[in-house]
């Protein structure tokens, strides 16, 4: 399992670097054409810049306060976000396609679905720019406490404030499916269930059959092995 966790961390760090740079790279490549294409690109960039100015300027100020990004970083990300997603939103299928590119050895669709739900705060089936940068801020620059809170929300699939054993098994299974052949030793349903059973017993300290956010946080802080295992969720983008 140690080798598997290291591979997951390496791939997720690569995913984080690649996607955080993508808006800036998209802006550069978009203006690299010549002649009429360059003129059109200039006009489009100017239009996008005007959109940044018109795009809820109070919202940008609020995002500066509520995230760990500067106003300039938010403007660059918004420009790239609009280029990649002209409608201004990311749907779940697009989100899954992004994950599939970085985990081709397995099936990332289930895990991407769960991550998408943590970003889609209003549960309308799409991720807005605000939701995107709020989630990215936590995952890329959040404190350990903030990342643990995000991990709890990932496991709390139905959002009822507690984690059931079935929910934990769903997430763990999705991770193994995503890693595919990189999972060493190979994991079957029985192994996954045994792993979940051990972790769940550690976290469910009052033995009520569910894990509260307090139990989750306390156990992760006290148990170094669980904390190391949970570190694979530190970043998702």
TrEMBL record:
Keywords, ordered alphabetically: Calcium, Metal-binding, Repeat
GO MF entries: calcium ion binding
Superkingdom in the source lineage: Eukaryota
SMART domains, per database record: EFh (SM00054)
UniProt-annotated stretches for the region Disordered: 13-43
Residue ranges occupied by any EF-hand domain in the UniProt entry: 107-142, 143-178, 191-226
InterPro entries: EF-hand-dom_pair (IPR011992), EF_Hand_1_Ca_BS (IPR018247), EF_hand_dom (IPR002048), Recoverin (IPR028846)
Pfam families assigned: EF-hand_6 (PF13405), EF-hand_7 (PF13499)
Family: Belongs to the recoverin family.
Name this polypeptide is given: Kv channel-interacting protein 4-like isoform X4
Species of the source: Biomphalaria glabrata (Bloodfluke planorb)
